[in-house]
Structures are given as C-alpha cells and as structure tokens.
Amino acid sequence: MKIGIYGGTFNPPHLGHLTAAAAVIATLKLDKLLLIPASIPPHKDLPAGSATAEQRLEMTRMAGEHLGLGSKVETLDMEVRRAGKSFTSDTLAELKAQFPEDELWLLMGTDMFLSFETWHEPEKIASLAGIAAFGRTKADMEPQFSAQRDKLYRLYPDARIFTLTVPGVIDISSTELREQLASGTGENLLPPAVYGYILRNHLYGTDVNLKSLTLSQLRPVALSYLKYKRIPHVLGTEQEAIRLATRYGADVEIAELADPDQSKIAAIDVSADIQTALENSYAYRLTRKQLTNARTDTVKEKLTETEKNQKETISNSVKSAYDSLLLAQSGYEQAQSALALQEVSMKSADAKLAAGTITKNTYENQKASYTTAQVTAQTQKLSLLQAMNDYDWAVNGLASVE
C-alpha cells in the first residue's frame, strides 16, 4: 500500500493544501492519505491569535472530508497528543512501525522542500519515506527543484524524491489568509465547513454575530456541523424545493427556508445544535399547503408563460453546455496527445538511465515533465466528465419541461 503523509500547522487548512494533495494522490496513485496537524511546529512559532491544536485538528478533519475520498483520507491526532515539538522524524518512525510493509511518501510544499536539509534529522526522514514535493508551475519551480534534487541526492544517496508542478494549485499562504479573514474576506479560499467553523469559534480575528447573518451567510456555519457525505443530500434537497416552487409558482424564498415563519430562523439560538436548525430549514418541509396553493387556477394561468420562459432558458443552457462539452473534449484530446509523447520520452529516458548515458538529474527532469503531463491529462479528464454531466443535466432539464 502506498501511503501519503501530509503534515503541517494547518493554521487554517485551505484549498491550496487540498488541490496539491489531490494532485499528489492522483499522480502517485496513493492508496491512503494521512493528514497530521502539528501540535508545536519545530521550524516556527505559532503567531498570536492562532487556533488551538485541537481546533486545527478539527478543521483539518473537515478539510480532509472536503476531498470527497471517504476512508482514503484520514486525519490523525498523533502529533497533537505527543508532548513537545512535532518532529517529522518521530512521526515517520511511529508510522513506519505501524505500517512496516507499506511505502510511505512525505508530501511537502516548495519552501519546505528547498530547506529540507535544515530539518531535524533529515537523513532519518529520507530513510523512512520518499519525498513528494509540489510547486505551482514548471517554469517557476523546475530550476529550483532540479538543483535541490541534485543536492539531496548527493547528501542522501538512497533518497526517493518525486517533484511535480500543480498548475491549478491555489497560491495562498496561511499568513495572508489569516489577514484576509480578519478583514472579512478569504471565504473563497476555504472549504465551506472550515469557514463556518472559523466563524462560529471567532477564530483569526473574525467576530461575527451569527444571529445577524442571513440564511446564505449562515450556511457555512451549519455545514460545519455536518459530515461531508451529508452535505450533498442537504443542499440537493434545498435545490429540489426551489425547483418545485419555481415550477408551481410557490414562494421560492419560503421554499428555500422550508418554513413560512422566517422569524423562527432568525430566532435560532446559534449556540445550540445548528444541525437541527439545518434540517428544519433546508427544504425538509416544503409544505403540502404551499404546493396545493401553487396549483390554484390563478397560478395555472401564469404557469404556461412561466414554463415557456423556463424552456427557452433551459434551451440556451443546453447550447451553452454543449459548447463547453466540445471545448472540454478538445482539451482532453490535446492533453492525451501530449501525454503520449511524454510516455515515449519517458521510456527512452528509462533506457538511457539503465545504460548510464544520462545523469540521474536529467532523468528526473524528464520524469517531472512526464508527471506534469499526467496531472494535466487527469485534470482535463475530470473537466470532460464534468462537462458531460452538465450537458446531461441540461438535456434532462429540457426534457422535463417538454
């Protein structure tokens, strides 16, 4: 089994962490990813106003669930429980004892990779796990990656080093993100549940009166109480209620709340269990009375024109979805062609390395190019699948109003 280990302060965990982790999982074909928040980071002091170790652990768990990979991603509290500084060499030794026959890979970003030889017991780390480092773009990072790989191979000849560039990675530092959160921005850089957890615990300088929030603003807070696998069901139910209300002329806002008495939502004690509030508010009770009223003769007279407009709107959506599908298909085909060329180059590099006609660093450069092509092909494949799904959804929507 191939196991990835991704540690850090995660103060807080953000989408940059997740996009990089997802790329490494796909490229290295990891069977499992372990997220391990540090209790006391050895390389720097936690800044004032940081979340506690327990809070960072909980946010990391939520972030891991956001990847949507189920049991393939696990958040461990081993460093939070362990006294003293959280040294990676100690963590890897403990994990190697737990998984003696498995292949361990230590994930890290650019800054950590470029300073690896300054870590506590780097030789021990290199003997226990492979090093998987990721950067933003090949043009930006490959010269530095190449020089550092060469240095680490000289220092630790038996090291396993894998570098890749992730063009779509969200480039944000935790320091910048904390500053944005304190100023009331940064929500778009976090998984919704993590942002909700930050708001309800008033972390990183956020000081929001939750009782004053609108339903849409309260949503991330509510989601922070849910297991990730429940979120699609909850939001899907809400969207179905809105769709029915639109179709039959009911009040969309009331359908979204699923309670005609909106004051009940405003009066929710946010310190209580918001999961109950969520299930009472997110379209669980689109009342029979609303649907009955929606079928009155007055509404039916308006319905014909509404459905005509809806059909025209959906027809336009089908056309747009089809254009997007063609574009995604073209991108996928180009990525596959580029990957095929890189596969030929990789086979040639394998043969040359075996014959001793190229250096290990030259080989690693080719391997990095091949890896980038793999990541790009995987990304384009996901884009194509999403475009196909969007097109099917639009076509089905058109069929439903025929």
Q: How is this structure best described in words?
A:
With 402 residues, the protein is α/β, with parallel strands linked by helices. The chain is 61% helix and 8% strand. It has 17 helices and six strands. It has helices at residues 15-28, 53-66, 78-81, 88-98, 110-114, 122-128, 138-155, 174-182, 192-200, 215-223, 231-248, 252-257, 262-266, 274-281, 288-294, 297-355, 360-400, and strands spanning 2-8, 32-37, 73-75, 103-108, 130-135, 161-165. The chain has a six-stranded parallel sheet with strand order 3-2-1-4-5-6, sandwiched between helices. Helix 7 (138-155) links the parallel strand 5 (130-135) and strand 6 (161-165). The longest helix has 59 residues, at 297-355. The radius of gyration is 25 Å and the shape is globular. The termini are far apart. Mean pLDDT is 79; it is low at 259-300.
